[in-house]
Amino acid sequence: MGDYRQVPRLDIYLAVLFAIVSYFILIQNDEHIFPSDAQWAIHLYSSIVYEGNTDLDEFRPQLEDRNFHSARVYNETAYSYFPIGTPIFLTPVLFVLEKGFVDFEGENLNEYLQTSFGKDSVNLKLHLLSASVAVALTGSFLYLIGLYYVPRGYALLLAFVFIFGSTAYSTASRALWQHGPSILTLAVSLWLLVRAEHGKKGLALAGFMLAWAYLIRPSNSVPIALITAYIFFYHRSYFIKFILCSLPLAILFFAYNLNIYDQWLHPYYAASRLGITPTFYEALLGNLVSPARGLFVYSSFLLLLIPMIWMGIAKRKFEPLDWILLAIVTLHWIAISMFAHWWGGYSYGPRLFTDMLPVLFLLFVRNFLHVVPEFDRTSIPSKVMNGLLIGLSAVSVTIHHVGVVNQAGWSWNSLPTSIDQFPERLWDWSDIQFLRPLKDPNRIGLAVIGNQPEEGLTKLELQLGNVGSSDKYWDIYVIEGVTLYPDFYFDNKLDDSKNLIARYNFPITSNTSHPISLTFPHELMKDSDFALRVDMLEEDGQVINSGVIPLDQLIPLGSFEQAGRANNLKLLYGQGWYPREFAGEFEYRWTKSPATIFLYSETDQTKELELVFGEMFDPAAENGKGNTGKMTVTTESGPALEFEVQNGVPLVTTVDLVEGYNQIEIKLETGNFSPADFNAGDSDRRLLSFITNKVELR
Q1: Strand, helix or coil at 600?
Q2: Could you read off the pLDDT of 413-459 as tens digits, one per residue?
Q3: Segment holding 450, helix H or strand E
Q4: Residues 358, 11, 200, CA angle at the centre, nearest 5°?
Q5: 501, 495 in Cβ contact below 8 A?
Q6: I need a labelling partner for 470 at 20 to 30 A (CA). Which of 16, 282, 283, 344 fits?
Q7: Are residues 296 and 289 in contact, defined by beta-carbon separation less than 8 angstroms?
């Protein structure tokens, strides 16, 4: 593999200097910190240190304020839904930062957190400072690994690029996600393995670090299994010690789970969260080349791995360790693609690939000199590869720097529509996430996110957003009879078009969105001119942009659906219906019983209503989801009708419609269930009854 090097004292000093310099770069931009799923990590550390336990009961008001997001209640006690490994692993770092570098306004951390509500600047600062330690140390160990395979200059460059040209920078360093400690434990483990490859001792300690890697993030079971197998076959003299070093943490971990959850594994570790979903093949492609989540899009320098691996195999220099590393990356890629939520929610770039960075780095440096010969750097192939490395690295670093310094890239997840509700946006090359800051700063973002009609009124939930870099003000024009709340007031005047003017009380700050609720009578829906007009204003009142959202655009975005244009029929989803979900091109809705639909008709008439159901609640099924059931359909003008229904088989019934809105109720005999009640590892706690694939009038 080239000129194997020792690591002189100078390189130890350079590794320490690399970590220090990297750390100060990482913490420079502290405006945009997104704990998201990791929002209770600091609270968990505080509970461990000050309360001597891992529950979050002392923070109940904050948990309730966030509807227990990222938390769960087991045996009436609140716990973090995510693994406890991250805050425990970084406890020494957090303790030093808490005592010496963060001011809690005269209180200790535990007292402070009980009176704050999570997203205050002090809590976020502690997230950034601690997470950046893990990422900076990862970079120094990558440098030490690189020294065994490439010259010192290349080792420094590649360590820098892998940290700052990847989600290690834009995600792992921003908050106490699992990814920061995960890549640190894997980097240290691989460093110990590389040292053993060169005849040095200490490989047994890799067992301890890999045990930590599993406690921090269960997906690390893939590298753990394959590295363990490699050590068994190629470093067998260390194997028993390696296993023994992992046992203390493993025993404590299983004992803790049995005590808290009455099972060997924390629910988050359940393998049932993965499976061959309808989006599996899309996810395989998307995790590599999606404009929103593609590894080769956001860290394009990794494209150079393709010729490196090809040349290594062609020259017969692709050794067993290389095959193990390639297998780890491949199996991880398959595993994250089996996750139904494969894009990783509201994140920036390929977050779920972050944990593979140390593995990709070792594979990169081990094969680097196959295409850039160390002693022939003047050759044309070497110049081309060096040029590509510098160019692609610069692009990658720039992309992830944008994710750190500009919130617009993160706001892309919710503006103009939620990426979780409309995952087709993952393939929108006209609105690439990292290019969002270059969009028109005066662009209006307005998304319909839901609808709950009741007692003759329709409630429409909107998300009004500002994708620009400065604060904007808003005027909204709506038809008379519409009420906007809670943050609007009326000037009680009608303009020339007889629209009521509602003005937003305060500006929507740069790169943020804000929910808005509107209520209006169902009768307004029969007005084909029903529309919203949004004006964006400067502080002095000057209109700089306008947007009009007519009814036919509101329909596909929200819970409105056009059932047919004949006789001006309109169908409006009522209570019980959840937003649309997608599995590839397939569209469906989960529904809670009883579910209501409103059918608007301008005349009295008789029509056929076709319903196609998917899975439905079956208490006898292992996961609560069955394929048959008894459905009751009740109309205002006739008796309740009972039907035996089957997954995918259309149910067609005649409905007599009267002029105006007609209410129809659909109810499954078995009622509702929560997926989390059938599978402790499922984070879906909604009440569900049945899936609706089609609702149509004809």
Answers
A1: strand
A2: 876 667 887 788 899 998 899 998 776 454 444 444 344 445 555 55
A3: strand 444-451
A4: 70
A5: yes
A6: 344
A7: yes
